[in-house]
Amino acid sequence: MAASPFLRPSPTDGATLIDGKAMANALTREVSEAVAELVAKGAPVPGLAVVLVGNDPASEIYVKNKAIQTHRAGMRSFMHMLPESTTQAELMALVSVLNADPQVQGILVQLPLPPHIDPVVVTNAIHPDKDVDGLGVVNTGRLALGMKNGLVPCTPLGCLMLLQAVQADMTGRQALVIGASNLVGKPMAQLLLQQNCTVTVAHVHTRNLPEICREADIVVVATGKPRLVEGSWIKPGATVIDVGITRLPQPDGRSRLVGDVNFPEVEKVAGYLTPVPGGVGPMTIACLLLNTLKAARLQKKAGREGEEGAEQDLGSGI
Ligand SMILES: NC(=O)C1=CN([C@@H]2O[C@H](COP(=O)(O)OP(=O)(O)OC[C@H]3O[C@@H](n4cnc5c(N)ncnc54)[C@H](OP(=O)(O)O)[C@@H]3O)[C@@H](O)[C@H]2O)C=CC1
Ligand SMILES: Nc1nc(=O)c2c([nH]1)NC[C@@H]1CN(c3ccc(C(=O)N[C@@H](CCC(=O)O)C(=O)O)cc3)C=[N+]21
Ligand SMILES: [Mg+2]
Predict the structure, then answer these.
(1) What range(s) does the Tetrahydrofolate dehydrogenase/cyclohydrolase catalytic domain occupy (predicted)?
(2) Same domain flag for 58 and 176
């Protein structure tokens, strides 16, 4: 098989870097071509609604990035910036309006939400075929059952594509997911299981994490603990996907993004590694666009089959 065009071998004999930014650009281009084809066949221009509650500066940057990339893919974006004081009932009312809006094919509610709002209740209110984050019970169930008509959470989907650039067939590999959130760790573990890996999921209560990590051929880290994973934890030649993003202040008063991996250490031991920035982050956004395209296709199909089309799909799939 031809080597992936997204691998950047190290000039100093360290880990080969997986170029998530280049992969995301290529995927976004493919999505934009598919969107143009869909629209040429008479479908509405796919629209993505992003809802942000409160004013977390980091979230605002991601939300702006998403809007820019959405336009690059030939889709429409609808931003809803709500104040921190928004009630759960008000947010639920907005979700109902977006569920019924024919211009909106994808809905994403940015996490975390303020403490007075239950994220599970809100994500479950999104119509399953518009749930481009894949976090509701229906899409979570579809993923767990290996059904093809589901929407898979964007970050784990992007991580899987980055892993496939290294090795298309992961059968029998030992995979470790560090972090067990609904957003990243849990769906990541499901995807690796589907790839026939032997999967371990670690979290704050895990004992002997360094020892467990040294057994892993594939490590996906999503904890939000900057530089948690040290070089001594890594099996030589392993593939390491760094999901973490933390903005750390620098002595000069500026800030820089760091991952959950101690990059200079791990770079010396790993076989393949994703950088931060330029690794998982851009792939998350490209996969969000891919899911919005998929959502638009699901809704076009449901439209042909009548109002209950999507529900019927689910029933017949089981
Ligand atoms: N690049 C991208 O596209 C994205 C990046 N992120 C980043 O990824 C990171 C994780 O995000 P998210 O999953 O939402 O975070 P959460 O805080 O929701 O989850 C973190 C998980 O890591 C576990 N954990 C925390 N500390 C440790 C530790 N010392 N050892 C082992 N496990 C630990 C927690 O365990 P427990 O459950 O027991 O508390 C929890 O399961 C953040 O930096 C976030 O910014 C997130 C989404 C997308
Ligand atoms: N419902 C929900 N779904 C999410 O997918 C979700 C979320 N909530 N809450 C926050 C996290 C975080 N997240 C990122 C997306 C893109 C970059 C990204 O583009 N990163 C660039 C750099 C960006 C920069 O410079 O700040 C990079 O890593 O190269 C990062 C992080 C999605 N998240
Ligand atoms: Mg450390």
Answers:
(1) 18-133
(2) no
Is 133 designated active site?
yes
- φ, ψ for residue 88 (rounded to 5)? -60, -40
Ligand nearest to the CA of 20: 2
Range of the domain at 263: 153-282
Q: What are residue 188's phi and psi, to 5 degrees? A: -60, -45
Residue 204 Cβ < 6 Å to ligand 1: yes
pTM: 0.95
Q: Is 21 in the pocket of ligand 1 (CB under 6 A)?
A: no
> How do residues 11-64 score in pLDDT, each as one tens digit?
999 999 999 999 999 999 999 999 999 999 999 999 999 999 998 877 887 888
CATH code at position 228:
3.40.50.720
Q: ipTM for the complex?
A: 0.98
- 218 and 107, same structural domain? no
Measured in Å, residue 21 CA sits from the centre of ligand 1 at 22
